[in-house]
Write a structure and sequence with these properties.
Blueprint lengths: L1 H17 L5 E9 L1 E2 L14 E6 L2 E7 L11 E8 L12 E7 L8 E3 L5 E2 L6 E3 L2 E2 L11 H14 L19 H7 L11 E9 L2 E11 L3 E9 L8 E3 L14 E4 L7 E6 L5 E7 L1
Parallel strand pairs: 1-9, 2-10
Antiparallel strand pairs: 1-5, 3-4, 3-6, 6-7, 6-8, 11-12, 12-16, 13-14, 13-15, 13-17
């Protein structure tokens, strides 16, 4: 009878716990200085530029970019809504966000991702400083201003006629457009350099035996992962299998093929399997 009495009491307590309402918490605040490629503070007052934060691709916070004065003064403050549990439009401690900046230049490419890394959310009520380089803010192509200046300088040293950047063109004839090569971090003037830009390379949280690699591929490319012993000393790299999820039982394969679709960030997972190893990605 004692057991029969205890069971419904425990179940009732669990049900009450599960029904606890989600509570709004003080925001976690990012503040800092947004600069252009030259290091000058970006002034968003004139054109209404703003900084935004996304969680899993969904917008959860936005703020205007203010006028900048001095070499270190902050020109944005972005408050991230916080909650005691996962809820749409809010974050919890440990969530990873991406920042983007809309420079409001009037073109469709005004919005761009300002960082290739994720920014972790801290404790509610805290404020941290994050300075961001706003590389794209004065051209309608969605590429860095300095990138265009470097291309233009090369053009006038090696080509004839006026310089005109065409993001849809394929200057080096390697099957990858100029803009896709910009996204992939490869040289649009060199056909032998196309198709692989590694974004992050880190162990999976809570599982040091699994390595996650995220990268931006080019079109119509094939990739593989290679492995060598950790101590090196002349050990050769050999093709190793990878998975598309961190589950140790997930299907594994040796190659990842990318078709003609628009490039998007890909992730693969590599497994240590009890041996210290060095890994690298290869464009076939």
């Amino acid at each position: 009878m004692k057991i029969a009495f205890c069971i419904p009491v425990v179940m009732a307590a669990m049900a009450a716990l599960a029904a606890a309402p989600t509570v709004s918490l003080p925001p976690f605040v990012y503040t800092g200085r947004i600069t252009d490629y030259s290091g000058a503070g970006l002034d968003g007052v004139a054109n209404g530029a703003e900084i935004r934060a996304r969680k899993n691709g969904k917008l959860i916070a936005r703020a205007p970019i203010a006028a900048s004065s001095g070499d270190s003064s902050a020109n944005y403050t972005l408050a991230i809504p916080m909650a005691s549990a996962e809820t749409p439009g809010s974050a919890v401690k440990g969530d990873e966000l991406t920042f983007e900046i809309d420079a409001n230049t009037g073109g469709a490419d005004g919005v761009y991702t300002a960082t290739n890394t994720f920014l972790a959310v801290g404790n509610p009520g805290r404020t941290v400083r994050v300075d961001v380089c706003a590389a794209t803010c004065a051209n309608p192509y969605g590429v860095a201003d300095q990138y265009l200046k470097d291309l233009e300088a090369w053009w006038y040293e090696n080509e004839t006629g006026p310089f005109s950047y065409d993001p849809k063109a394929d200057w080096d004839g390697d099957g990858v457009s100029n803009y896709d090569e910009y996204l992939a971090g490869t040289d649009p003037l060199n056909a032998e350099d196309a198709g692989l830009r590694i974004l992050t390379w880190q162990t999976v949280a809570g599982n040091p035996d699994v390595m996650e690699a995220t990268f931006l591929p080019g079109r119509n490319r094939v990739y593989s992962a290679e492995r060598s012993s950790q101590d090196g000393k002349g050990s050769a790299f050999e093709t190793t299998q990878h998975a598309e999820t961190p589950d140790a039982n997930a299907p594994r394969k040796s190659y990842l093929s990318v078709g003609s679709e628009d490039p998007e960030i890909r992730a693969i997972y590599l497994f240590r399997d009890g041996a210290s190893s060095l890994f690298r990605l290869r464009l076939e």
